[in-house]
Amino acid sequence: MEEQLRERIQAVEARIAAACERAGRDRSEVQVIAVTKYVSLETTGKAIRLGLNHIGENRWQDVQPKWEAYADEATWHFIGHLQTNKVKDVVGKFAYIHSLDRLSLAAELEKKAASRGLTIPCFIQLNISGEDTKYGLPPEQLFDFVKRIAAMPSLRIEGLMTMAPYETDAEATRPIFRGLREWRDRLNEEGHLGYEVKGLSMGMSGDFEVAIEEGATWVRLGTVLVGKES
Ligand SMILES: *Cc1c(COP(=O)(O)O)cnc(C)c1O
């Protein structure tokens, strides 16, 4: 079990290093979030002990026991759709929110963070593919959105996040990831936030190498890295 996990981690690491090499990027520019939503508390603990200290989950109900067991041993990333009435559960526990996609959510995060004196690093989730089954802000609304965010002092925009459609050929996801990078660059040119935004949270098990080639700074890896149980 543990040996298998160790081997998976090594295999993914080699693939990340090779993608960085192809893209002329330094390995230190890409961070890995281990997505543990498909695995048990025990496997999550093993993953953390093997050095995967950024953990991603998308439902508070599911992650709660894991968070309670390992809160201080990892940095926690909320990567899934966040309902406004669940904001109270995640503020103060998750270091990063990857799914900021609407003003009502921003306002609630701001309120809860401010009342606790916290600053929350967030990624704005864009729906680059335009699929109506995907969450995310339509990209053409990004600049108006960040103008409003700029007035929320407890939110700090780390970058942009997207999910590519599932493709059997990972290469087909490239325009989505390139599109996210271009929106980030445009965001910086427009300067509405008053600071530079560097982060690109993109790439999952099936497409992370392409995402890295296109500039990902955080890849969110579940199945390929920690496996899928039950
Ligand atoms: C589940 C999930 C992942 C990881 O999925 P895998 O394909 O198993 O790597 C990444 N990002 C988000 C937002 C997810 O919900």
TrEMBL record:
Top-rank taxon, per record: Bacteria
Modification sites for N6-(pyridoxal phosphate)lysine: 37
SUPFAM superfamilies per the UniProt record, alphabetical: PLP-binding barrel
GTP-binding found in the keyword field: no
UniProt domain Alanine racemase N-terminal: residue ranges: 10-228
UniProt keyword Electron transport present: no
Transmembrane segments: none
Keywords: Pyridoxal phosphate
Entry-linked InterPro entries: Ala_racemase_N (IPR001608), PLP-binding_barrel (IPR029066), PyrdxlP_homeostasis (IPR011078)
PANTHER family with a match to the protein in the record: PROLINE SYNTHETASE CO-TRANSCRIBED BACTERIAL HOMOLOG PROTEIN, PYRIDOXAL PHOSPHATE HOMEOSTASIS PROTEIN
NCBIfam families: YggS family pyridoxal phosphate-dependent enzyme
Assigned protein family: Belongs to the pyridoxal phosphate-binding protein YggS/PROSC family.
Role according to the record: Pyridoxal 5'-phosphate (PLP)-binding protein, which is involved in PLP homeostasis.
UniProt name for this protein: Pyridoxal phosphate homeostasis protein
